[in-house]
Amino acid sequence: MTLEEVRKNIDRVDAKIRDLFTERMGLADEVARIKAQTEDVIYKPEREAVILKKQSECMEPHLVKEYQALIKRIMEISRKYQYGRTLQLRDCFPYTFEKEIQKPRKVAMLYKEVYICRNYQREQIHTAQNYEEIARQILAGEVQAGIGIIEDIGKGESDELNRVLTEQKLYINRCQVAEEGCGKKKVVEFSASLAVLPEHNRLKICFVCPNRSGALSSILSMISDYGVNLTEIHSMPYQDEEDWNYRFFAELSLNLLQQEAKALVYQLSCETQDLKLLGSYFCEGDFIK
Asked: What is the chain's mean pLDDT, rounded?
């Protein structure tokens, strides 16, 4: 065959795949309806492993890995569709948030970082020696919010602030980038309340990857499938009761008031371990100036 003839045959096969895909997604919709009624979980890794093994039994050995990769992607896309349909059929979004933010009367900052604060008068600022002390002041009601440098852009992240946000259930409400000399610092305001406003375009999250091959790759593909830009990701080691693991901190370009955004977060909550929302805020481009 000529190359043109081969391409025509590929088009013919692709048309068949499209029809079969449409039929399969119709079946996925039926699965979503049934599971919404029974409140059954959508993602079942053990069942997917059985399907992969069964479907590859009669394949030519040199095509097994490629075929399994195709089946995995089909199942991932099917799950994405089912999570969205489940939210439409059943009120099961696992997070709550407020839809307004009150400007704090008093804020807390590290003594060494007070120089970076430009939005509050000196008498409105309480100082602290560490972020744990700032968290204590917020939770005790002594101040309404904390301010801290979460990133020295190009130089690294503040693991201490990320850890406190994660462990003390505090949330970023505002973000700006302060220019200092030749560098920039990402400054955030955080409080005990998660709030989402219509103008917000960033969501910060923290999660732990399941301990299986390809887990992080699957999570990143999931985010991409929703058309969401990943504007930041880094990891931080921590020790649980038995072993060391890694928390991943990510910033997503989305607004949690949108249904697709809720579907992504819902899916992440089901397919990662210990997902936490760490804040919702506005950011112009990559950084606010």
From this structure: 92
